[in-house]
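Each letter names a residue; the fold follows as tokens. Both lines appear below:
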Amino acid sequence: MAKNLVIVESPAKAKTIAKILGKDFQVKASAGHIRDLPKKGLGVDIKKNFSPKYEVLAEKSEVVRDLQDAANRAKVVYLAPDPDREGEAIAWHLAAVLSEVDAQPTLKRIEFNEITKDAIQRAIKNPRDIDTGRVDAQQARRVLDRLVGYKISPLLWQKVRRGLSAGRVQSVTVRLICDREREIQAFVPQEYWSVHAELQKGGQSAFVAELAKWQGKKPVLSSEGVTGAIVTALKAATYVVGSITTKEQKRQPAAPFITSSLQQEASRRHGFTVKRTMALAQQLYEGIELGAEGPVGLITYMRTDSIRVAKEAQTEAKAYITERWGEGYIPKSARAFKSKKGAQDAHEAIRPTSVVRTPESVKKNLTPDQLKLYRLIWERFLASQMENATLSVVTVEIGAGDGIFRVSDTKVVFPGYQVLYIELSEREGEEEAQAPKLPELAQGDVLNLLALTPKQHFTQPPPRYTEASLVKTLEEQGIGRPSTYAPTIATVQDRGYVEKDGRALKPTELGVQVNEQLVTHFPNIVDVGFTADMENKLDSVEDGAEAWQHLIKNFYTPFAETLKVAAKEMKPVAIPSGINCDLCGKEYWIKSGRFGEFLACSDYPTCKGTKPLIKRIGLSCPTCTTGDVIIKKSRTGKTFYGCERWPDCSFTSWDQPTNTPCVKCQSLTVIKRAKNGREFVLCTNAECKAISNVPKKKAAAGTPETGAQEGPEGVEAATQ
């Protein structure tokens, strides 16, 4: 008897679903996309209404044959890739290759938001047709990105250096980071002061209040002289309690996680990169072995912009909250959060598939990082279904001559959701609430002045983006969609346009140069508003309001004219090296060739002086002590560190050496990176292996070279 065939994307997901469906079903994985535009050539026929040419990926030919053989033996084939545009496109490509088999099985599309027995069985009972709107929107995105990548990137190869790329979303991301860096460099700090009084009532505990008004207005403390005159007057004043106001404040829990908020909170709390967060979430979604229970999907689908929650999940949460904390922690009516404008709202929020599976109950089955993320998701969802926190805020104003000081004290009346989960933004308020700073005060009380402290401050420039704050900005500006944030941030770093300074993202010199070229010659491509509007147009394609070819045509017609002008007007970019030519004394420029970067005389072709580009990291060789450690490339393009005196000195290391010996055994230490992205220092002595924190300023300060892709296929930007 022929089995029904279910095709998913991930082998891990296939394993979980196979155990759920049993012996009547065969479950196989496509391992992602099976067809795409060709790696070589444009792959889009512009003259034939932008018709794309798809081909089976070379590395997937065996997978496709296996799926076709399985489909030939099946009566029904259920196409079950992820429930988003990209998943819909994968289902469409699968249908195309499976329609060629002799048996001609019935093809059905199914989707589910969580990998649980009920959700899978419900999906099997309710199949649907492939959503052509979603497919067309994904085709439009793919063709757009291919046109941008293959048309602009060759210009960057010619004018800047080989191996560069441009992308519709990645280039806007680089611009945001470059614009922020420009703001920081142009920032002029402004001086301002504040005045704090340490006060005491009788023998009770002292507290600190801040000057809020001077002569009836907000004080303008712009200099030490102005502040000093006020402080002198305040020293002679009598401090008397004036008004005391008490207000009750309600705090509502945050909504369950969507993709962007999960990425931000995981970064802030645990230091996870966006890429790491999504990899962990994928594992939790696809299924974790829970002993006798087998593989179970612990969370719902993690690429979503919706905060909608299924009624069944709310009912289960209500029962759990009531049992654990009591009915007082249940809101009078079930919470209904409102999604942001422009959200696709295709799926639920990210939540545990069952709140009964507490973090403690699955702890032994999870890695430490999986547990951290699962706990975050579990607590955030459960808290979102709980009663508000009630706070009592007491504000006291204290008169002192022509000045009024103000101090507030917050106390928790009822913790509500905060008994379980508190956002980082609320932590400061929580700490203040746990340690009240005000004694019992009454209007007219005369206070003792213990100290009067003026403090100098300076306004601060806007901070560099972190991965978390960049995701927030991309979401707010409407750039990309939940599935694009992680690959976009990874791409701009992999291309060498952006680098990390701690957690902060800063543009490299290369990133600045490329951004300037794109802003000058392709202003629309790197315009935030234009890119956000394109996302809205892709939504229109999905909704059936616009044909995808029409969208491409409206984009490409002016784009083609811009390309012609840019090809004529874009001038070669020189990246200075700060090193003088050995032949003529003029400065070398950093250039890129077939075998990577090298130095070439700026007076070329008059002077043809060249030399290898050696990148030092400011560290003497630990083996010979006479040479410097430099950054090198292996034959496969992998970065490693070696002595410049090779082959006379054989020192090499895959990890970046430091100039700080091990505190325990004085051996060489290197910088390693953990799976969560955090760096640490490791002793290379196999018998010691001591671990310590990375110094704030690394001794090895060199920047590894970025690998340039060779050949025409290397010029396309990442599609996300």
User: Anything to note?
Assistant: DSSP finds 18 helices and 30 strands in the chain. Confidence is low (pLDDT under 50) at residues 428-436, 697-720.
